[in-house]
Amino acid sequence: MVKKVILLTFVLVGGSLGYNVFPGLISNWSEAPTWLMNPIIGMVLGAGIFYIVSLSTVTPIKKGLVKIEKIFSEMSTTYLMFGSIGAIIGLILALLFSYGLNALNIIFISDVLPFILTVILAYGGFQLGTSRREEIRRLFVPKTETQENSDVLERKEGETFRKYKVLDTSTIIDGRILDVVRTGFLEGVLVVSHYVLKELQYIADSSDSLKRVRGRRGLDILNALQKEKSIALEMDDSDIPETEEVDLKLVHLAKKLDGMVITNDFNLNKVAEFQNIHVLNINELANAVKPVVIPGEEMTVMVVKHGTERSQGVAYLDDGTMVVVEEGKHHVNETVDVIVTSSLQTNAGRMIFAKLSNEKKSLNNHKQLSH
After folding, report:
1. d(Cα 165, Cα 277) in Å, to the nearest integer?
2. Which domain holds residue 46?
3. Domains held by the chain: number
4. Considering 120, 136, 152, which residue would you say is the last residue of a domain?
5. Hey, which residues does 190 pair with through a beta bridge?
6. Residue 190 and residue 274 in one domain
7. Can you tell me the distance from the alpha carbon of 125 to that of 219, in angstroms, rounded to the nearest whole number?
8. pLDDT in tens, 312-367
9. 209-227 vs 194-204: helix axis angle to the nearest 10?
10. d(CA 138, CA 121)
């Protein structure tokens, strides 16, 4: 589509120049045929010449437009809006100055200086509008009595701050997002799409008892989030017809709001990252805040089942971390003291490898007896 627009632009420009300029050029040629003086002939020739030229230049122009589009897509709406307003004000000032300079009727001052002044004032207005946009915005926002009496400066939002956080279905059903919100580590606005709400309702009405419990838990979490005063929760009713998948609809919504996606879904995480959408993964957060265990550290665990390898047993910490105990097969359903030997971080979480503490003690006793 972009290629066709570029070709059409070249043809229209060439046709316009040929219609207006070509007859005048031909009139200087004394031996030129009369039919070449016709503006229509000039328009056809101009359009044809520019079309041929456009075939070799359309690809570089298209690449340039794609780069420009990428640059603008990474800029926030407020940045572009205040920058444009500043540039327009700069152009108006340049126009007013140009009237005075043209009246002087001096070659350099009347012809060249207005152009230079226009570029400088437009660029300066854009820079002023973007760098001072928070102060300008605050001028038009009515201050409350609390703000007027406060001596604390308002925090400036950085370019990396994303106000809107789009919740997906897995995060709501998981429920840990409620605890994260209550701790105050999240700021901004939580956004729930009506597509997610429909999916939760569908799960809550499922004939499968397990799915029904999960769906109702998700609805309860939503109601609890709505009552939380530490963060705002908004419903989004906008239609997203670009795709049928709910996860992809959330990616489009986050891109539209210039926000983030909060999810536990590994696949949605990768899709969002591929489309340059910032992602907050609750599982990654949980793994990051788990206490670090050091080889040699002792702990008490309950072996609950056999491991995959011979003689191994499996235990779990309170936060769900799996502990693989060597020689723990013979201590299932027993509480034992173990010593950490190593730990492994995986996509599913952290695994801890340990051995029975009494093995080390028996080994030390054996050494003492041998001496």
Report:
1. 11
2. 2-73
3. 4
4. 136
5. 165, 233
6. yes
7. 49
8. 899 988 777 889 999 888 888 888 999 999 888 766 667 889 999 875 444 444 44
9. 140
10. 24
